[in-house]
Amino acid sequence: MASKHEISTLFVTIFLLLILGSSGSPRKSMRSRRPCKEMVFYFHDIIYNGKNSKNATSAIVGAPAWGNHTILAKYNHFGNLVVFDDPITLDNNLHSPPVGRAQGFYIYDQKDIFTAWLGFSFVFNSTAHKGSINFAGADPLMNKTRDISVIGGTGDFFMTRGIATIMTDSFEGEVYFRLRVDIKFYECW
Amino acid sequence: MASKHEISTLFVTIFLLLILGSSGSPRKSMRSRRPCKEMVFYFHDIIYNGKNSKNATSAIVGAPAWGNHTILAKYNHFGNLVVFDDPITLDNNLHSPPVGRAQGFYIYDQKDIFTAWLGFSFVFNSTAHKGSINFAGADPLMNKTRDISVIGGTGDFFMTRGIATIMTDSFEGEVYFRLRVDIKFYECW
Amino acid sequence: MASKHEISTLFVTIFLLLILGSSGSPRKSMRSRRPCKEMVFYFHDIIYNGKNSKNATSAIVGAPAWGNHTILAKYNHFGNLVVFDDPITLDNNLHSPPVGRAQGFYIYDQKDIFTAWLGFSFVFNSTAHKGSINFAGADPLMNKTRDISVIGGTGDFFMTRGIATIMTDSFEGEVYFRLRVDIKFYECW
């Protein structure tokens, strides 16, 4: 019985050392790469081209010296800043009832290939979801999938962080594109 | 005494299982929704309109095809990008001594209602505070209160995260507005 | 032996109380200010001036009413939005093999001194690094060092957060500048 007792004490001591050790060192080992929440959405962007003001959901508002605010610039649209207010849907149908709005901007930022930088939010105000998810990151849009950061959230998404994987689900010239967004939250509250 | 001993061992074992269980699962339960720090500030925006260059603290620098850089565009200013360097005060008086600067941009991003997307910092360099707080998020500015994310901080605000609740404290046509910002930090270091 | 046993039980109880106490209070004490990873990079910005379209890595795409998209505006470039796609190098030589691209934007946002707001990513796609690091924050560029936030990361930099200290390593008129970036990650996964 004495040895059983000593084993128990040893057990506690080792455990204590492990805990104390891990709290002092970088917290790498405490973090889980298993998402605490997952969601999939689509959003739809119709860019203003001078003729579609009724349907357009986005517009060019910045351009390089060689561009203008109606037609996307040459050199892979380098320098075009686009503001958007796009409907979010649960499936890939533009005409499905929107469940929220994707609002923010993208800037085409490479001369030799299509690439953009994104800063935007998903804004929800329905019985299903209330609150917002904030995103930022590079979108090398010729890649099949691209990862950007979920940098914060409010309401139902209070303080969340995670990764959003973006896929171009449809692309129709320079008028319409649809993105599929797979959101994996790794910090939930 | 033997049973007491067994209870002790059982206790340790259950505890171990609890700890191991919680570190493997999403870390939801470890997080506190009690702020670790709270602050309230006001900031003041005077937009350049072609006549007020001395007092203006912000300026239109992006506009849609139907707009210009002196007058905010129709359709609820959709597409206007505004850069600002606004004084931060502790109360709602524009003429109070500024305690810092709110610097960054907002983009009006909805055609049918006033809404903006914000990316900015509070920059402090006084005896009271040194460092910066970085913000991003959607600002549906017709709502009484709006939540955006504190995405990071430096100096006195090293690595902070949280929620900033914005209220329009005053709004004078398209010349001046004042925002009250209630910052709640939930991650302090 | 009985007392030894009681000490063991006491030990466990105190430990339990400590753990339970720390999980309820703000998690300040659990956080380490020791970086879990450190990296140093340089990046190089050559701004388009109407004559250098071959070498330019950035361009003015937003300007105030008193500016244009070829020459940086007066009043310390207040209101100029610049989009960039800059090579990242391991040393301070512009002609060293780039290890990645710095992509995003900066906005000059103060009339009486050079100051900018940055939103950008480091994008890596080599054997050494795959993934991206996302940054945001105020850059009071006349200061010797400036801290901005690492707001997220993907790939090799999955979910990272930290502080990036920026130094202007070289500045040649309004044509070329080189920044040294010391990245300290405090959250690794």
From TrEMBL, chains A, B, C:
<dbReference type="Pfam" id="PF03018">
    <property type="entry name" value="Dirigent"/>
</dbReference>
<keyword id="KW-0052">Apoplast</keyword>
<keyword id="KW-0732">Signal</keyword>
<comment type="similarity">
    <text>Belongs to the plant dirigent protein family.</text>
</comment>
<dbReference type="GO" id="GO:0048046">
    <property type="term" value="C:apoplast"/>
</dbReference>
<keyword id="KW-0964">Secreted</keyword>
<protein>
    <recommendedName>
        <fullName>Dirigent protein</fullName>
    </recommendedName>
</protein>
<dbReference type="InterPro" id="IPR004265">
    <property type="entry name" value="Dirigent"/>
</dbReference>
<comment type="function">
    <text>Dirigent proteins impart stereoselectivity on the phenoxy radical-coupling reaction, yielding optically active lignans from two molecules of coniferyl alcohol in the biosynthesis of lignans, flavonolignans, and alkaloids and thus plays a central role in plant secondary metabolism.</text>
</comment>
<dbReference type="InterPro" id="IPR044859">
    <property type="entry name" value="Allene_oxi_cyc_Dirigent"/>
</dbReference>
<comment type="subunit">
    <text>Homodimer.</text>
</comment>
<dbReference type="GO" id="GO:0009699">
    <property type="term" value="P:phenylpropanoid biosynthetic process"/>
</dbReference>
<feature type="signal peptide">
    <location>
        <begin position="1"/>
        <end position="24"/>
    </location>
</feature>
